[in-house]
Amino acid sequence: MRIYCRAPPPIDYRRRRHLFPAPSDIGRNHTRLLARAANTYLTTAFTWKIQRYIWQLLTGSDPLVTYGAALLHGPAAYSYRKFVLTMPVDLQDKSGEVAQRLLLKHRIGEPASYTPQFTIEADTWADRGREERYLPDIGRSDLRRTSLSLTLAASAAGDPEELVHLALAGEKIAALRLCRFADSAHCKLDGDAAAMFGVRPTQIHREYTYLAKALGTDVFKRDTSHGPRQLTPTGTSLYHLVRANIDRLRQIASYEPPRPT
User: Which residues 6+ apart lie within 8 Å of 127 measured at CB?
Assistant: First the structure.
C-alpha cells in the first residue's frame, strides 16, 4: 500500500521574529568560528554583517528595512550585498549550522530554511523539503525596491500582529495611521477624531478604511453608517498592540500626539 505524505508545513517565521527581533539578538558567541570559516579577522564590520546574514536566514526579514536592522541605503546596503554575493561556501555552511543550533536552543525542530520538494518516482512530498543553509543573492534592483515592497506588504498584512510588525520595520505611513488610530480609538464619531487631529472626517475615514483593508476586517462597528462606533475584536487587538509599541511607532512616523484641549 502506498503511503502519501503531505507537503511539509511552512516555516513559522512569525515565531522566529519574536525570538530574534533584531540582528544583535543572534549573539556574538559564534562569530569567532565564523570568522575562521571566512578566513578573515573578527572585526566589528564582519560581526555586523554575519549577524545580519544569520538573522535574515532565520526570520526571512529584509535586512535593509526591518525593525532592529534600521533602514539602510547607499554604501551600507551595497556593502552588505557584496558580502552576501562573495561569501565563501564554508562560511555559508557554518552560518547555516549556527542558525540551526539557535533554532534547536529554542526547541524548534524546523530546518533553517527549505524548499518543498516533490518526488515524482515515489509520488510523495519529502518530509522536510530540500534544506537550504544560504540566502539567495541580493540584487541591485532589490535594494531599490525595498521601501515599496514594505508598503505593499503593509497594505495586505492580514492580521494586527503582522501590520504592527511591518510598521515597526520602518513603514512610515502605516506607523502614522496606527498612531492616529490608537489616539482616536475611543472617540465616538469620526468627526471627533478628525477634530482631534485638525483634519477632515473624510481623511480619518480613509485611514480607517486602509486599516480595514490591510487586516481584511473592520476595526470599528456601527449601527448606522454615520452613527457612534465601537472597536471590533480585531480593532481591540490592534489597539493593544499599537499601545504596547507606541513610542517606537511615533518615532518612525515623526508623529506628535495631539495635546488635550
Answer: 5, 8
